[in-house]
Structures are given as structure tokens and as C-alpha cells.
Amino acid sequence: MSTPRQVESDLGWALGRVARAHLRTAQTVMGGLPGGPRGYQVLAAVARGEPASQLALARKLGVDRTVMTYLLDEIQAAGLIERRPDPADRRARRVEITEAGGARLCDLERRLRDAEEHLLAPLRPEEQDLLRDLLARLAAVDPDQASACQVAADLTEGDCTA
Questions:
Q1: Under DSSP, is residue 82 helix (H, G, I), strand (E, B) or coil?
Q2: d(C-alpha 139, C-alpha 142), whole Å
């Protein structure tokens, strides 16, 4: 029989703790940006040119489309983005970053990277890079690939004491 793991070795606990610390840091860095960290995600996605429409952007970021409309309204009012009719589909709106939005994004990226370096300071630089790479790979996996029912079934078949 194996001994129970300490809570500090639990993946969920560790991810939650790091995620909460990152969120607090991001909220501090993003202070004053419409939408805070979510507004930053919108600016970053729009700056990369993906996806171009409001609806596709909402889907990509996992934001309800009505919430996305209000968020884009706030970001546009701050002069950071523009919405224009899509030439291919006049019903759709293309979201584009403004010059001011690009400058603000650049500043936020620099400040966020500095804050993340502080958060990840216990790790060596190569470990920081590896962690970022591994998390990006995990985040890219479609969460719908495995159904919640199958995950639960797999877990109940395993030995909980291991």
C-alpha cells in the first residue's frame, strides 16, 4: 500500500496555485486596460490577425458572443481597436488593432513578461522556457477530444492509492 501524496505534489493544487498567482500578477499589470487580462487576450489575438471576425474571436477565446460585443465596445472606446464591415460578408465585423492598440500591447507584453519572470524566478531560465513550452502544448489540445464521461470512467478503473 502506498502512502497518500502531499497536497503540494498534487497537479491540480500546483496548477491552481500558480494560475491564481499569475492572475493576480496579470490583473496588476493590466490595470486600466478595458477588460483587464481578457482585454489583453483580445488585443494579442487581434494583433496576430487571428481570428478576424468578432464571432470567431469570441469562439477562439472562449468568450460568450454577447460579452465579446461589450468587451470590444470598451476596447474600441479606448482607441485600441477598430471594427469594420468584412468585405466578404457585410454582416460580419472585422476587428483590427489600431496604432495606439499596438503600442499599448507592446508595453503590456513587456510588463507582463517582466512580472512572469519574477513569478518563475525559482526556476532556471531553461526550465522557464520548458514550462512555457509544455503549458502551450497542453493548452493547444482540444478539451473536447476526451469526453468527461470517459475521463471519469478511466479514473474509477484506476487504483486511487497509487
A1: strand
A2: 8
Which of 24, 27, 49, 20 minimizes the C-alpha distance to 108? 27
pTM: 0.74
Which triple of cell numbers denotes residue 7? 497536497
Side-chain-side CA neighbours of residue 136 (13 Å): 6
Q: Which residues contact 65 (CB under 8 A, 6 or more apart)?
A: 54, 55, 58
Per-residue pLDDT of the chain (162 residues; tens, 9 = 90+): 455 567 667 888 989 999 999 999 999 999 899 999 999 999 999 999 877 788 889 998 989 989 999 999 999 999 999 998 888 887 888 899 999 999 999 999 999 999 999 999 999 999 999 999 999 998 888 666 555 555 555 555 655 444
Q: Domain limits of the chain? A: 7-124
User: Which amino acid makes up residue 147?
Assistant: S
Are 92 and 133 contacting, i.e. CB atoms less than 8 angstroms apart? no
- Cβ(92)–Cβ(86) under 8 Å? yes
Is the domain defined by 7-124 classed in CATH 3.40.1350.10?
Answer: no
Give the sign of the dihedral formed by CA 52, CA 144, CA 109, CA 27. Answer: positive
Cα distance from N-terminal residue to C-terminal residue, the chain? 8
Residue with cell 465596445: 73
